[in-house]
Structures are given as structure tokens and as C-alpha cells.
Predict the structure.
Amino acid sequence: MQEEKISQDKQTTVSTSSAVDLGKEFAPFSPDFAANLYSFYARARQEEGVFFSPFLNLWVVSHFKDAITILKDHRRFCIFDENPRSETYAPEVFALLGQSPLHCTPTLLTVDPPVHTRLRGCMNKAMSPQRIATLEPRIRNIANQLIDQFEGLGQVDFATQFARPYAVRATTTLMDVPEADLRHIPRWSEDMMALFYGDPLAEQQLVLARSLLEMHQYFYHLAEQSQMAPQDDLAGHLFKAGNAEEVPLSIAEVGNILLEVLGAGFETTTGLLSNCLYHMLAEPIHWQAILDNPADIPALIEETLRLDLPVHGPLRRTAETVELGGKTIPKGALLQVMLDSSNHDETIFSEPETFDPHRKKLSRHIGFGYGAHYCVGSPLARLEVRILLEQLRERLPSLRLVPQQEFAYTPSLIFHRLMHLLVEWDRPAI
């Protein structure tokens, strides 16, 4: 496979041998690397907290303090508003993506303040904690419906058969997505993430781009329908919030927000669910804690967000030459802020490789980011995971890992989640 860079910016690798080794060994598309991610991060934090990857042509940031420096300073470290894998695309892919009705429309993930402030303000109103809380009965019903389907089987691949459909249906409780259309969403989301953050072969790119265009057209149409006949859903609340602004939200802006909420919420929540349940069952003391006292669930979720985050971290572009982690990084350089490494920083969290929901400073984790781009969907993600763990506790108390299974993580520039998680339980007596 040809190693192609994600940017044409000319940058120079650092001169120390350890940094050169780290840069060459940083291989997010390798299954072996994904399986040994945290040992690599531990080495990086000790040897070179900031190092350069020649393969991806970006600087990797692994320390907590450097991550905070970047995420709170959008003037020096601006949002990266390009597709990080676009340099590998065939011309036909660009032509196809250019047909999207959402093309070149600002989104929460592609702009900084002040444009971001306007979009975020509308999102905060449309996804207020009070509104998210009203979704709890519907999400709990979704969890029970899925348990109904599997309860009599005694075993399931939680990651693919349970977490994914649950995350899709729970996230779309915010939106007026018809039941019949839900089947398209996992494929659309998987194809979008593979095109943007994976390493697809040239012959696969056009197939993925067609799927992405189909997804863009769908969410534009959903927003268009909402503008004509507003409902009590996310799009309706976004238009209502936008109409109170000096510049109302456009159909394309609302369509993009719907797509981002679904893509980000579905993909990350799927990973968080699987990673969290794995740690509950890998050390049964934690599952027993849930059985004994469900009030412990929120702390268990927070420790999962610290210990085994389902994403690596966001990309940023330097707006000027900066000093970071003892390195001089030129203007226009691309950086990746490794939130998952930052959450293991020994200077912030003692014994960071240990799962400890009672640890001090747990609230300091940056699993949902930091600063202006802090995840607006964090209340929904926490609610979804809490509800599911509560219902699994109530209905499948004998839940356990299937013995002797192999655990593999998704190779990706952005995501870190279990590909499969086989669980079993005592089937109810007939």
C-alpha cells in the first residue's frame, strides 16, 4: 500500500533518534498498533511528547498540558476544515462530493468563533440538558426492545448487534427520521468515516463517496422538510433558535448539524458503549458494583471516558509558528491532539493504566474535548450509556464475557473502539 501524505505542506522531522522512531512507528491504520495504542502513548509521553509523523505529515501531541494549550487557543491553533485524507482521492471523488447540497457550508466541526459561536448558540438551545432529559423514557424503551430480541439467545456480539443499533435509534430520537430509513444510517456513517478517517483503496473511494453524497442529500431533504413544516424535533428547534438570530440558520446549515450530530453521536457512542461494557466485565468487580449499587454507573462511565476513549483526538492547524512541547512547529502545520493519551498523563492521573472509578481528579478528563469545541452531545452520550447499563443490570444480571475471545480495535485516524465484543448470560428458564 502506497504511503501517501495528507497534506502538501513541507515540514521537517525532528532530529532526535527517539522522535524519528516514534514518527515512523505511529501507524493508526495498523491493527497491531491499535491493539497496543496505550503502551505507545506511554513511550511518547516519556520520550517525545510532541513528535512528527512523516507518513501522515502531522505533529502528534500526547501530553495533557499541551492538549489544553491547543484546545483553548483557537487563534493560534485553528480548526482543521479540510478532509484529512483528501490528498489520496481520485479526481472523480472530488467531482462527486462537489454535487452535495451541503458542500462548502460551515459546520460546528469546521469553523472557529465567531462563526462557530453562532452555530453553537443555536445548538445549545436545541439540545439543552432539559430537552435531552425528556428523551429518557424513549431511550429506555429502545434498550428494552433490543434486550427483548436477544434475551432468549444467551449470547450476542454486543459491539455489532447491540451497541450499533442502540446508538442509531437512541441518537435519532432527536430527529424525525422515519423508522424505515434507520437501516441506511449505519452504512452511511461507516462509509463516511472510512472515506474521511480510514485508508480506503482507490477503487473503494468512489463507492464511499456515492454513499456520502446520498447521506448529504437525505439530511438536506430532512432539514428542508422541517423548514416547511417544523416539528418538535432537533431540526425544528434549530430553525426556531436560528430565527431568533440576526442571521437565521440556512437549510444547509441545519442539514449539516443533523448529519454531524448523527455521525459523531452514533460513531462515538457505539464505541463508548462497547469499551465501557468491556471494562465492566473484564474485571467482574466493576459489574458487581453495578449490580450492588446502580448509583455507581455515572462514575464508571467517566472512568471509561478517561481510560479507554472511543476517539483519539481532533485535528488542528497552526495559524503561526508556535513553540510546543519543546518543538518549533511552523505556521500551517497540522497537529493531532491525542485526547486518549492526555487522559493517561501520569502528571494528572496517578496509575493511569488502572481502571479506578473512585480516583481523584476524575472530572479533569478531557474525553469530550475542551474549550469552544467541547462536545455539545455529551449529555446525550452519558444518558444513552447510563440507561443501557441500567437495563442490562436489571434484565441480564449474569452478563459476562465469552471466554477465550480475541479483542481487536478499529484501525483509524480518529476512532478507537472494539470491533467485536462477545458477551453471554444465563438464558431465562422456559
